[in-house]
Design brief:
Elements (H helix, E strand, L loop, with lengths): L10 H12 L9 H4 L9 E5 L2 E9 L2 E8 L2 E2 L2 E2 L11 E9 L2 E5 L4 E5 L2 E5 L6 E7 L15 E4 L8 E4 L5 H10 L3 E2 L9 E2 L2 E3 L6 E8 L14 E5 L3 E5 L32 E9 L2 E3 L2 E4 L1 E7 L2 E9 L18 E2 L7 E9 L2
Parallel strand pairs: 4-5
Antiparallel strand pairs: 1-2, 1-10, 2-3, 3-6, 6-7, 7-8, 8-9, 9-10, 11-25, 12-13, 12-15, 14-25, 15-24, 16-19, 16-25, 17-18, 17-24, 19-22, 20-21, 22-23
Length: 351
């Protein structure tokens, strides 16, 4: 078989600044057209055959990992075994580009990716599976807001519905912000009109259904939390992680995870530079005075698949935004040193 894959308002702003100062940022590409100049970009992605799926992850410099799933791609035939993070028949092969092809090898299997096809060869005589590259699209991509919904971002004209906390550049600025509170500045909008991470909605909400779309940057040489990191804070305190965790296990710190609290039921992260969706049904926590009497709850669909089903939210994502509290609260699109982009954000308040 294959080898298994081994794999408060401003504390986060300040820690991100310190992290970026300590380490140079890996190259980051936010434009799909620019990414095409890297031949690895055309190879990364998803491949399928009958009841077999593979996710090919670009690692930079012509190197790749390929995760192979029996049953199909995650969310489309394959899900983790209940109670386990990695299903026992989920393996990887690794290799690199050699000329116009990519050669991969595992403990018993090997593979070749050429053009749009991934030929997987096994140890038995004549054992060969041919997978074809596919590009999945979320069924809710481009979803139109219902009548009466609040459109938070439909394009650059909605940029004034958001504000961006100014990043302190000096100790004096940091101390001033700690004393007087945030200094706000206009949000950043990409050349394609998408909203860049690092934005707080000016409007506040209680219970609602929300839709938003995000696009991860292409950062093949980055690893872990440095690989296109952002996050969506619902109620300004509960974070659903946004991260390039395509092909990984789907841990609680990876894309779709209720950050450091609960892993997604299945990792539905698409490859970087594909638009992805979160569809959320959120119920705010209930308070009697200063006492919380009921946890908030959340159901989350990632690219059309439920990854958290009526999840109770017993605590905030500690130390990064506001502590828990009563509604209404804003939505925050976290900036964590990367330029993740967002579009088509709307909120339908529940009565």
């Amino acid at each position: 078989m294959f080898r298994k894959l081994s794999l408060s308002l401003f504390p986060l702003v300040l820690s991100a600044a310190a992290c970026l100062a300590a380490k140079p940022q890996p190259p980051e590409i936010t434009d799909p057209e620019e990414a095409k100049a890297d031949p690895d970009f055309a190879i990364q992605g998803e491949y399928v055959a009958d009841k077999i799926g593979a996710q090919v992850i670009a690692r930079g410099g012509g190197k790749f990992d390929a995760v192979v799933y029996q049953g199909g791609l995650p969310g489309a035939g394959w899900t983790p075994t209940k109670g386990k993070v990695i299903q026992k028949n989920n393996w990887t092969v690794a290799g690199e580009r050699q000329g116009g092809a990519v050669k991969l090898a595992g403990d018993e299997y090997s593979g070749t990716i050429e053009g749009q096809k991934f030929a997987l060869v096994g140890p038995k005589a004549g054992e060969r599976i041919e997978l074809v590259r596919t590009v999945r699209q979320s069924p809710s991509l481009g979803a139109k807001p219902p009548a009466g919904a609040v459109v938070l971002y439909g394009g650059p004209a909605d940029a004034d519905k958001w504000q961006r906390p100014k990043m302190p550049r000096t100790r004096a600025e940091r101390d001033q912000i700690a004393k007087d509170g945030p200094v706000w500045e206009p949000v950043q909008v990409g050349k394609d009109g998408a909203l860049e991470a690092g934005a707080v909605s000016k409007q506040k909400f209680g219970d609602y259904r929300a839709h938003l779309e995000f696009r991860l940057s292409y950062m093949p040489t980055a690893r872990g939390q440095a690989r296109s990191n952002s996050g969506v804070y619902f109620h300004n305190c509960y974070e659903i992680q946004v991260l390039d965790s395509f092909g990984l296990r789907g841990d609680k710190g990876e894309c779709g995870g209720f950050y450091n609290n609960k892993a997604p039921d299945v990792n539905l992260c698409f490859p970087p530079l594909q638009w992805q969706t979160y569809d959320v049904d959120f119920t705010a926590p209930r308070y009697e005075g200063d006492k919380k009497v009921a946890d908030g709850r959340m159901t989350v669909k990632h690219n059309g698949v439920v990854i958290h089903d009526n999840l109770a939210l017993p605590k905030s994502t500690q130390g990064f935004r506001q502590p828990e509290g009563p509604a209404p609260r804003p939505i925050y699109l976290q900036a964590h040193g990367c330029h993740v982009h967002y579009q088509n954000i709307w909120v339908e308040e529940k009565k």
